[in-house]
Amino acid sequence: MDKKEVRKKSKEARKKLSSNDIEEKSLAIANNLLQLNIWDKTYYHLFLPIVEHKEVDTEFILQILAGKDKETVVSKSDFETRRMTHFLLTDATRIKKNEYNIPEPVNGIEVPVSKIDVVFVPLLSFDKQGHRVGYGKGFYDIFLSECKPDVIKIGLSFFEPEEKIKDILETDMKLDFCVTDSKIYSF
């Protein structure tokens, strides 16, 4: 399947998820993350979910990070440049939804991309080779290409992988892991 077909299939599958499904699957994904050998790092980049798109609820991961006393980084998107600015998430950080319903920090302490050790990556789908399909704007591919070479890239998915996504570009950044509610995929 190509990216367009995969996007359509994933969006349709997400529409069928109830809020209870999302909560249960998100909790199982967070629990599976605990099995990964990633918890000795300091800076963890986490996306805040677009509830209207039925994305993985990252609140459970946020609780894990807080419980392990880790630094959580969230981003603000610039739709003109397709770049993201990263901020430390603290009790003082104000979050507001942008025009695309993406929850973003309004203020905060900026964190250079070079500090980030682990990135939890949103996606619509992924394949067995570690390629992901997002919404197609390239924000995460640009961001991940700017990260240090050993940054750990972890996709979070409600669904199992596709066999192969056909139209992968050289600029598409591969995942190191993808975690579903039932399994951890390593690439």
UniProtKB/TrEMBL annotation:
GO terms for molecular function: 5-formyltetrahydrofolate cyclo-ligase activity; ATP binding; metal ion binding. It catalyses: (6S)-5-formyl-5,6,7,8-tetrahydrofolate + ATP = (6R)-5,10-methenyltetrahydrofolate + ADP + phosphate. InterPro entries: FTHF_cligase, FTHF_cligase-like_sf, NagB/RpiA_transferase-like. Substrate binds at residues 50, 55. ATP binds at residues 3-7, 132-140. Keywords: ATP-binding, Ligase, Magnesium, Metal-binding, Nucleotide-binding. Its cofactor is Mg(2+). Transmembrane segments: none annotated. It comes from the Bacteria. Gene3D superfamilies: NagB/RpiA/CoA transferase-like. Its EC number is 6.3.3.2. GO terms for biological process: folic acid-containing compound biosynthetic process; tetrahydrofolate interconversion. Belongs to the 5-formyltetrahydrofolate cyclo-ligase family. This is 5-formyltetrahydrofolate cyclo-ligase. The lineage of its organism: Bacteria, Pseudomonadati, Bacteroidota, Flavobacteriia, Flavobacteriales.
